[in-house]
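Obj: model holo form, ligand = iron/sulfur cluster.
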Amino acid sequence: MVGLWRKIRAVGRVAEPAPPAPAAPPPPAAAALSGSVQVRHVDAGSCNGCEVEIGSAFGPVYDAERYGARLVASPRHADALLVTGPVTRNMAEPLRRTFEAVPQPRVVVAVGDCARNCGVFAGAYGVAGAVRDVVPVDLEVAGCPPRPEAVVEALRTLTGR
Ligand code: SF4
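Output (holo C-alpha cells):
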C-alpha cells in the first residue's frame, strides 16, 4: 500500500489539461441530457482502429469521464450510442435493435469515416451502408481513425461541459 502511494506521488496527474469547452451547440436531441451522458458503444463493422482511440478517450490521459461521459454495458442504461465502422449486413439489424432499446431522448454519434460514409470499405460486398443509412445520426466525428481529442470533443458537445 505504501508503495502504491509512493508511485502515485512520483507519477502525479497524467490527464491532459482540459481544453476550452466546444463552442458548437449540442444536437437538439441532446438538450435534455443536462451535463451527463451514458454511452453505449456499438462496433457495427469497424477494423478496431476507432475502438483503440475510443479506449484512449476514456483512458487516464484524455479522461472523458471528467466531462460527464460514461460508458455503460447496456443500451437500456444509455442516452447515446457511439457507433463505429461501416454497418455490415450482419450488424444492420442488431444496430437497429440496439437503437430501439435506448430510451428517449437518445442520441447517435457516428465515430470515424467508416461510420460517416463507409470510408475505405465503401462498396464492399459485406457492407450495408453508413450508420445514417440504418439509424438516425445526430453527430459525426471525422477521421480514420479520429483522434481521441475529437471523440472527447464530441462527447463534450453532448454534455455541454
Ligand atoms: S474509420 Fe478507419 S480506423 Fe475507423 S473503422 Fe474505419 S478504417 Fe478502421
